[in-house]
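Could you join me in thinking about how sequence relates to backbone shape in a protein? To get us started, please write out a protein record for me. Would you write everything just below, so we can both look at the same thing?
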Amino acid sequence: MKERDDTQPLNESMVIDDAYWGGKKNDGIRGRGATSKTPFLASISLTEDAHPVKMRLSRVTGFTKQELAAWAKKHLSPGTLVVSDGLKCFPTIEKADCKHEPIIARTDNGYDEYGVFKWVNVMIGNIKNALHGTYHHVSPRHLPRYLAEFCYRFNRSLSCTQWLIGWHT
């Protein structure tokens, strides 16, 4: 499943965000720098009406410029419009001949005032809840296979929007 999805690049317009899997260890470090968290990249292709069509979840070693440039060359078609938040590594996506549009959408009322990251955040939440509810333990070593299972089902479902909404409610 994973190998087949990795050969099909995402194209047209998409939203991308950083995400982490795992809990905290008792080493005192919390948040993004925690030693037990596994970083992965969540991306979703959208139609002109901003409905999700295809998703890709990829484990990365970290959110560095080199890692994101390599990911973009492998998984994106040239000319793709990529919308992301203000993370400093995302502009390197342009090295893969893609257009990058950073949107920093923080306001006093909430994170995403314009609804740009709605579907990618719903997707991340649904997948994390499904993994927590289904499996006792997901090791970082096997996380890409678990994520690929969700991508495979989503990318081949008849109504991606219903799939996301069904999990969200």
Summary: Helices lie at 2-6, 65-75, 118-134, 143-155, 160-168. Residues 23 and 36 are 6 Å apart (CA to CA).
